[in-house]
């Protein structure tokens, strides 16, 4: 049935679609639904029209690409195609709000086209189903949202890098179990989140590759007798490839799962950063800009890190989205079930919520003030330099385990108001344990340096460590990674823009 030219109702007699939709003006009933299933108590329950505003523009693009392809394949005549395409432009101009009532945006747009074109407008839905149509719309819209999210994440990484460069030598306490652990720097801390966001970016880019595939031409799930050109609609819509098996292509929403999972992982990264900043703020280790703070309605002295708490809290939105989506999809049989109409919203909610979080979290960190003196003083709290002292003894040949014991014993002997043992105290314990005076192993100067948080940081210049030189190397790696991801993003945006232009050019040929 590849020769569809003489089936074109614009030049010949109207086919079934024409007969079925003779009267375009039926008030409450749409031309697509006709009298069947038009009303009843479940009407609004069935409808996704309001939610579908999100895919209104996507549906118009999908319709255009499909109609252009139908015309190119002689499935629909040129003239009819031109009328449908003109009607789609008009539908776009009047907007989603002006659509006739319908079960969903696909049906409503089709009705609006038939209202404008007459029965031949019904040829638009030749060789497709709402099943492949909606799958294409979701993918088309989602990829734009994912690109925006990636752009926001890459921008956030750039902001974190600015902080890393500015706070290269700002020593701060590092914690494990929220207990003072070892001194580090603000740069090292912030780079730890850049590196995590780098992986989050990679996960989103990876998901993008599987989002950007063309399900159109699968029809309901079982293909179509019409000679559709699925590569052509892929090209016109900027999809990188064709989702081949028509049953899978219509049914699957795993690209939503993958994306929402990447979004939930990203939200989890942000929640850690947010929690760190909330804790820092409570200790006076960071001073948030007023723009990112809130006050109390009763306690006049308060300046609260509410923005970061909301970033932390929004993780729930993303995790809920992933959970809702997986629960929606679990156990759905092949090929299409109406459950799917409730799948997209979970991904949209997650991605909207977290995109905002990324920008706010990065903005809060980028505009914060890091009180260097307070941080350096706090970096010695709780004998946080202890590991460095043990390292020093181990570097002098004492087995690390023995060095660990010596320092632990010195730590146990500390008075409540003391942060670290002095040279004399360490000496006494060391001589007891090692049988030799401490000076046999380390000189006083080196040991006192190890007790100083700035020196303690400087010692740890292993790859990826907090010493300023090691931090410089990480900044440089991160800069390269940002540049690569920026380019990857620009590349995908260019491809999408090119496809949009191509589609417009093709549509204009029918004017
Ligand atoms: N609004 C529907 C959705 O989002 C479109 C597909 C309807 N298909 C069907 N076979 N009832 O899933």
From TrEMBL:
Cellular component terms per the entry's GO annotation: cytosol
**Does the record carry Cytoplasm as a key word?**
yes
Query: Start and end of every Argininosuccinate lyase C-terminal domain?
Result: 383-458
Question: What top-level branch of life does the organism fall under?
Answer: Archaea
Catalytic reactions on record: 2-(N(omega)-L-arginino)succinate = fumarate + L-arginine
Which GO annotations describe the biological process of this protein? L-arginine biosynthetic process via ornithine
Segments forming domain Fumarate lyase N-terminal: 71-316
Name where it mostly resides. Answer: cytoplasm
The molecular function terms of the Gene Ontology recorded here are: argininosuccinate lyase activity
Disordered: annotated segments: 1-31
In which pathway does this enzyme or protein participate?
Amino-acid biosynthesis; L-arginine biosynthesis; L-arginine from L-ornithine and carbamoyl phosphate: step 3/3
This entry's Enzyme Commission designation comes to: 4.3.2.1
UniProt keyword terms in alphabetical order: Amino-acid biosynthesis, Arginine biosynthesis, Cytoplasm, Lyase
> Which family does this protein fall into?
Belongs to the lyase 1 family. Argininosuccinate lyase subfamily.
Give the matching NCBIfam families: argH
HAMAP family recorded? Arg_succ_lyase
Q: What is this protein called?
A: Argininosuccinate lyase
């Amino acid at each position: 049935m590849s020769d569809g030219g003489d089936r074109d109702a614009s030049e010949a007699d109207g086919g079934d679609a024409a007969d079925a939709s003779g009267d375009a003006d039926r008030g409450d009933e749409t031309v697509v639904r006709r009298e069947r299933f038009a009303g009843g108590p479940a009407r609004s329950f069935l409808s996704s029209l309001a939610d579908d505003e999100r895919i209104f523009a996507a549906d118009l693009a999908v319709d255009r690409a499909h109609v252009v392809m139908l015309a190119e394949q002689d499935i629909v005549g040129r003239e009819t195609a031109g009328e449908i395409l003109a009607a789609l432009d008009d539908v776009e101009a009047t907007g989603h709000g002006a659509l006739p009532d319908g079960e969903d945006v696909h049906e409503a747009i089709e009705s609006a086209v038939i209202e404008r074109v007459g029965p031949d407008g019904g040829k638009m839905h030749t060789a497709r189903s709402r099943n492949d149509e909606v799958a294409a719309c979701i993918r088309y819209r989602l990829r734009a949202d994912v690109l925006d999210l990636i752009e926001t994440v890459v921008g956030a990484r750039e902001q974190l890098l600015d902080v890393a460069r500015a706070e290269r030598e700002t020593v701060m306490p590092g914690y494990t179990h929220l207990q003072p652990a070892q001194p580090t720097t603000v740069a090292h801390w912030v780079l730890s989140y850049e590196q995590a966001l780098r992986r989050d970016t990679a996960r989103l880019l990876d998901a993008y590759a599987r989002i950007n595939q063309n399900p159109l031409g699968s029809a309901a799930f079982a293909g179509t007798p019409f000679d559709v050109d699925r590569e052509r609609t892929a090209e016109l819509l900027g999809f990188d490839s064709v989702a081949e098996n028509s049953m899978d292509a219509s049914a699957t929403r795993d690209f939503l799962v993958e994306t929402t999972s990447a979004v939930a992982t990203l939200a989890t990264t942000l929640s850690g950063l947010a929690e760190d900043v909330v804790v820092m703020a409570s200790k006076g280790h960071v001073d948030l800009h007023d723009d990112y703070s809130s006050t109390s309605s009763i306690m006049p002295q308060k300046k609260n890190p509410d923005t970061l708490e909301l970033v932390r809290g929004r993780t729930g939105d993303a995790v809920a989205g992933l959970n809702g989506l997986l629960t929606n999809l679990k156990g759905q049989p092949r090929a299409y079930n109406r459950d799917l109409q409730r799948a997209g919203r979970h991904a949209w909610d997650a991605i909207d919520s977290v995109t905002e979080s990324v920008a706010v979290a990065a903005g809060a960190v980028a505009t914060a003030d890091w009180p260097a003196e307070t941080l350096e003083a706090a970096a010695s709290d709780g004998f946080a330099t202890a590991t460095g002292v043990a390292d020093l003894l181990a570097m002098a040949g004492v087995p690390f385990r023995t060095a660990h014991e010596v320092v632990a014993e010195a730590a146990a002997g500390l008075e409540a108001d003391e942060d670290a043992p002095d040279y004399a105290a360490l000496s006494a314990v060391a001589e007891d344990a090692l049988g030799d005076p401490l000076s046999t192993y380390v000189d006083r100067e080196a040991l006192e340096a190890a007790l100083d948080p700035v020196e303690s940081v400087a010692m740890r210049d292993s790859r990826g460590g907090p010493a300023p030189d090691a931090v410089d190397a990480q900044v440089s790696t991160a800069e390269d990674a940002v540049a690569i991801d920026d380019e990857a993003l620009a590349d995908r945006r260019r491809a999408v823009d090119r496809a949009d232009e191509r589609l417009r050019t093709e549509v204009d040929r029918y004017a």
